[in-house]
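Technical appendix A lists one of the benchmark inputs used to test multi-chain prediction within the project. The record comprises two sequence entries:
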Amino acid sequence: MSTSRRDIPAGAAVVTGASVATDSAQAEDSASSHDHDPDHGHSDVPSDMALRVKSLESLLVEKGVVDPAALDAVVDIYENKVGPRNGSKVVARAWIDPAFKARLLENGTSAINEFGFAGWQGEDMVVVENTPTVHNLVVCTLCSCYPWPVLGLPPTWYKSMAYRSRAIIDPRGVLRDMGTVVDEDIELRVWDSTAQQRYLVLPERPDGTETLGEAELAALVTRDSMIGVTRLGVGR
Amino acid sequence: MNGLHDCGGMQGFGPIGHVADEPMFHSPWEGRVCAMSRSVGLAGKTRVTLGLRWGIEAIPAVDQVRMTYFEKWFASLVNRLVECGIVSPEEVARGQSDPDKRMISTPASVAQAIRANLGRPDGSTNTAAKPNFEVGDPVRVRNINPVTHTRCPRYLRSRTGIVVKHRGAWDFPDTAHITLAISDRHSPLPAEPDHVYAIRFPAREVWGDDAPPTDFLYADLWERYLERA
C-alpha cells in the first residue's frame, strides 16, 4: 500500500467501506491499516479502525443501543477482572483438595463457581485432567471458543488459522513447536470446542512442589498449561 | 458453510506465532468493539441474537485472511446491525443517526452489562425429545454441507466415533441463523433445542494410518449432525 490512510480526511476514512464492511474497500482499509500500524495502534495518529469504531459507537449511543459507561465496564472486565490467574486458582485448589478436584471433574461449571468465577463463554465448563498416561490439548477449529471466565480473552496465536488448522491434524508437531514433548505411548486427546462446552486442562502438579501452599502453587500455573500446549516443570 | 473459517486439518498457514504474553486488547478500539458486540444484544427494544459468528463466516475468504481478529468482529457487528435493521448503511457512513430514528431503544446499564458478562449464565436448555444415543454408541457424522452457519466441522463429516458423554440439550445453531436471515426485524429467534454429545474419534479414523494410534479427537456435536453407525 503506497497511500497512507493518514492522508485522507477522517470523515472520508470513516465512510469508506463502513456500511458494507465486507466489500473490497474494507479489505483495502484493513490491509493499509496493517501497513502503517503493524503493532495494532500504538501510533499517535488515530488509525482508520479507531475512527470507524468511534463513529459506530457515537451512532449507537445516539440511538440508545449502547451506554458508554456500560462499555467501559465491559472493557474493564476483560482487561482486569478475568484472566489466567482465575484458572490458576482453580488448578491449585484441585491439586491440594481431592474432594474439590472430584467436584471439578464431575461438574466444572459449579465447582469453578465456588470461586465466584462465571460468565460469558463459561456456560458449560468441562475440566480435563492430564495424567502420566493422558495429555489433553484444547482448540477451536471453527472460531475462537475459549473459557473466558477462567482464562480471559484468547491470545492471538490461539485464534490464528495456523494453530486452529494444525492442532487437530498434527497435535504432536504443535506441541513440539511449543517445546513440549509428549511421549509416544501417552494418549493424546485433542478437544475441539464445537458447541457450548468450554475446556480447561488440569495440568499435572510438578514434582518437588509438595511443600508449597495453595497460593504458591497457583503462581506456578501458566495459561499455556491450562490450554494444554505446555506441561508444567517440563520443557519450556 | 464450507468457509475458510472451517480450517481444521488445512495445511499451509505457516508458523503459529506463539508469544508468552500479550495484552487482552492491543489497542483501545479493540476493547470498544468487544464491548459493543457484547452489549448491543442487551438493549431493550433491539433485543436480537445477532449471530456475530455467522457474520464473520460470511466475510469473503480473501478478506478473512487479511483482516485481524477484531477487524472481523467489527465488520460482522456492522453488517449484522444493518441486516437486523438497527442502523442503516447511511447512518453508519455518517456516524450519525437519522433525526427521526434516534433513541430507538434503552441501552443496557452498567449493572446489566456486568451481570451479562460475569453472572452465572443459563446452562443447557430443555427439550421434550428423548436423546437417541447413549454413551458407548458408535455414531457417524452425517455428510452434510449446509450453506448457513453450522457447528459441524468438515473434517469430521462421514467419520465414525463413539459417544462418550451426553451434554444435555442446547439450541441448534444452524437453524437459528437461517431464521435470523429471513425473519422480521427484531423478532426473537425460536429456540430449537437438540441433544449434544461429546464424541471421541480415533485420529486414524479421521486422518488415516499415518496418524499415531494413541491420538484421539473429541468434538461436541448436536444430534442432528449424527446418525447411528
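Chain A touches chain B through 99 residues (CB under 8 Å). Strands of chain A lie at 124-129, 134-139, 187-192, 197-202. Comparable benchmark entries are summarised in Table A2.
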